[in-house]
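About this split. The held-out portion is used to measure sequence recovery: a designer receives only the structure tokens and must propose an amino acid at every position. Recovery is the fraction of positions where the proposal matches the reference. Here is one held-out target exactly as it appears in the evaluation file.
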């Protein structure tokens, strides 16, 4: 039977494929005593897990998809060698014998010891093997706990699959970047949750807040995902299927046409040039940035380097990641935002206690100032990378002057240390602040004299202005970028920054929404930073816009409080 589900569209496009239900597993390792009499059975359990994982890896090797990178076979072979090594295959058994503990606990202890040892290795190649050990160890833990390896289909099948999940974390989404699914749909989430942002960055249609999709849809069912309307059609009949295949083709053709704008300068009809920059999560995203024709990176969300791992990246690792991006951009600006973990972006090693209101708690700059060693490590890495390109440093979630003063003092300390150690950095590295909390937007003079530039994070600015959790599907309908309070804060920030002669950008999702482009241009915005996939569409709007035509309609919009009239006025601005 065919039926439709409605949610919030977060990434455009049309996908047609079979459902793959994804269930999340967390590894809870318990600790218990195993008496001498039961120890042989515990050792046996460990050996069985070793055999099971050995078989899993063999199967993986046999099913390497055609066209997979050449290193894949070598990579699996390495994992098989690690599995056989005494450090994993024997040492936990000794711990079971000596300590009388359960196999999972013994393995966890041994894994942590190995990770710490590898971390201290001088040789970067050997240091990187730490991740391989962790991955093999995790497989083994899962086999012991009785959880299957993550239920992802092989690469070749993923191409035709639509991933259906109750919820996905931003960390899951980063892993999926290597898995070419057709589309993602989830029960939970809001349009600007980090999971949605990442789905958008993959350039594949996605829908969140479907509420019951995971319960209702069955594995292998045919789905159509309409990323424009936010609709999922389950088991469509042949007629609907044919119609959507046609629409899908048209959509692809339009995207192809837009790609031709890559090297066209983003200039309005009246000759003002607009800076279009890109948002990235990982150094590998630089390829997409180059293909999009972006004039630099306006937001590098560095927290993604801290996810899907049990430890924190050290200075060298971070330095290499930042330097790689700075060099790849060849003199174009690269805005590196300091660590913004907390709330929906959790890193295992971050050790952030869960609280009732995580978005209002120890997040972003608050977390960094509470962990000065972690922060200093990152500041040193960013400063060192600044020697290799046009780097700018951006501070997230500022809300008080004291935070800014303390941050600047730590930057100064990092500069001093590097100078003493004879390590090069850009002494003029520009330092900017994110406008994400209404407090900073309302008290800009308190911050502006100490900052070189501003970047408005509309995702959080809307969340904090309207008191709407951006990840909560239950209140997602109230998350309103066109709320007069939000528009007022954005317009005020742009105006005040320009008056003070400081550049200001927007790097929240509003910047990549072509329906907002004219409004933001009318507010005076000249720098937009967005996921590379959105850049051509925004550029197309800019190319067809005359700034002088925007002045009076935008003034009227800023004085309008009636939501219906406001929406109508923005529609007219875009189409009239
Ligand atoms: C924002 O809040 O708008 C922003 C760009 O930061 P993030 O989405 O990473 O919180
Ligand atoms: Mg933010």
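Reference sequence for scoring:
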């Amino acid at each position: 039977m065919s039926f439709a589900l409605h949610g919030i569209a977060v990434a455009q496009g049309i996908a047609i494929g079979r459902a793959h239900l994804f269930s999340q597993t967390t590894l809870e390792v318990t600790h218990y005593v195993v008496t001498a009499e039961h120890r042989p059975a515990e050792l046996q359990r460990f050996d069985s897990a070793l055999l099971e994982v050995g078989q899993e890896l063999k199967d993986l090797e046999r099913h390497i998809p055609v066209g997979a990178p050449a290193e894949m076979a070598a990579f699996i072979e390495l994992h098989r060698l690690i599995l056989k090594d005494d450090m994993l295959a024997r040492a936990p058994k000794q711990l079971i014998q000596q300590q009388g503990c359960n196999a999972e606990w013994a393995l966890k202890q041994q894994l942590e010891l190995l990770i710490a040892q590898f971390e201290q290795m001088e040789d970067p190649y050997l240091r990187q093997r730490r991740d391989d050990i962790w991955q093999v160890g995790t497989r083994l833990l899962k086999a012991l706990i009785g959880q299957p390896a993550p239920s992802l289909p092989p690469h070749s099948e993923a191409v035709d699959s639509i991933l259906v999940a109750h919820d996905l974390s931003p960390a899951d989404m980063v892993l999926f970047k290597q898995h070419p699914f057709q589309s993602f749909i989830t029960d939970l989430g809001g349009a600007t949750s980090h999971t949605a942002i990442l789905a958008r960055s993959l350039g594949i249609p996605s829908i969140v807040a479907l509420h019951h999709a995971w319960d209702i849809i069955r594995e292998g069912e045919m789905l159509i995902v309409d990323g424009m309307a936010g609709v999922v059609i389950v088991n469509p009949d042949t007629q609907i299927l044919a119609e959507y295949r046609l629409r899908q083709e048209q959509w692809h053709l339009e995207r192809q046409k837009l790609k031709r704008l890559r090297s066209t300068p983003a200039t309005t009809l009246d000759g003002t040039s607009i800076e279009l920059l890109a948002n990235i999560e990982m150094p590998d995203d630089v390829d997409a940035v180059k293909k999009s024709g972006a004039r630099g990176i306006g937001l590098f969300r560095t927290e993604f380097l801290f996810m899907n791992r049990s430890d924190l990246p050290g200075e060298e690792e971070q330095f290499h990641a930042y330097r790689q991006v700075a060099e790849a951009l060849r003199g174009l600006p690269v805005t590196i935002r300091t660590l913004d973990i907390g709330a929906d972006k959790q890193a295992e090693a971050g050790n952030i206690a869960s609280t009732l209101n995580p978005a209002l708690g120890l997040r972003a700059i608050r977390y960094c100032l509470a962990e000065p060693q972690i922060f200093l490590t990152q500041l040193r890495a960013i400063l060192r990378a600044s020697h290799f390109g046009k780097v700018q440093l951006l501070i997230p979630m500022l809300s008080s002057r004291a935070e800014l003063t303390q941050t600047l003092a730590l930057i100064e300390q990092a500069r001093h240390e590097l100078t003493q150690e004879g390590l090069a950095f850009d002494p003029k590295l520009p330092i900017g602040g994110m406008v994400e909390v209404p407090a900073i937007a309302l008290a800009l003079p308190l911050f502006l004299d100490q900052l070189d530039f501003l970047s408005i994070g509309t995702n959080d600015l809307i969340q904090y202005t309207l008191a709407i959790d951006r990840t909560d599907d239950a209140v997602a309908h109230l998350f309103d970028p066109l709320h007069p309070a939000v528009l007022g804060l954005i317009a005020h920030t742009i105006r005040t920054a320009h008056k003070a002669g400081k550049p200001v950008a927007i790097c929240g999702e509003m910047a990549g929404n072509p329906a907002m482009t004219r409004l933001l241009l009318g507010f005076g915005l000249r720098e937009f930073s967005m996921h590379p996939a959105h850049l051509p569409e925004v550029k197309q709007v800019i190319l067809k816009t005359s700034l002088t035509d925007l002045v009076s309609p935008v003034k009227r919009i800023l004085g309008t409080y009636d939501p219906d009239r406001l929406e109508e006025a923005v529609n007219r601005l875009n189409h009239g």
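Annotator remark: The chain has a mean pLDDT of 90.
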